[in-house]
From TrEMBL:
Region spans: Disordered: 83-131
UniProt keyword annotations, A-Z: Signal
Transmembrane segments: none
Protein name in the entry: Transglycosylase SLT domain-containing protein
Species this protein is from: Streptomyces laculatispora
Amino acid sequence: MSRISVRGFAVASATAVTTVGAVVGVAAGSTPAVGDNNFEATAADTTLLADIPAGQQAQVQTASLTQQADAQASAADATAKKSAEESARIQAAKDAKSKKQAAEDQLAKERKAEQDKKDAAERASRSEVRSASAFATQGSYSVAEVQAMARQMIPGDQFQCFSNIVNHESTWNYRASNPSSGAYGLVQALPGSKMASAGADWQTNPATQIKWGLNYMDSRYGSPCGAWSFWQANSWY
């Protein structure tokens, strides 16, 4: 079979040329140029279906339709690829969001566990605190003895703050007295008689003074450390 140079095929009539398939130089479905010269040039470069031997017309038509089908398939592939890429992008964003949420949930869980651990330790510490009545009364107490009593009465995480205040107020002298103000004892209660609410022996028993001082700091500042923070800012509490 001889090669037929067909850039497209057309059916001629007395008044128009209808393009079938893909015609090079004439866009599918477009209107031919009006000028005689252009029309003649186009016609000269176009093989009419009528000019093709009858036995080859079907092949030409089939080739044109195949070309159109290939073009449509290529366009469909491009659309499908674009859709797949968009779907992948959306899924990746969802996955990233899920991972971020999972990480935040895990962090919150770990923080809660840590806080629960601290709370349990604090409760355990408080449960081991001795009351003022647990100490035998003595005629006098050394600084070391008073501090040892305080360590047993003050929660472990609060002792240093309590100690800081007592160091500044009385240097751990349970008989310390301020003649000008009337403040008295380890925590310099003003007036000293306030400590009677913790025990009648408030003037001579450091355990009673420690009990009163701890209750005062807890009720007014939330804790000895809260009282110490206030003291640092104001030099009194």
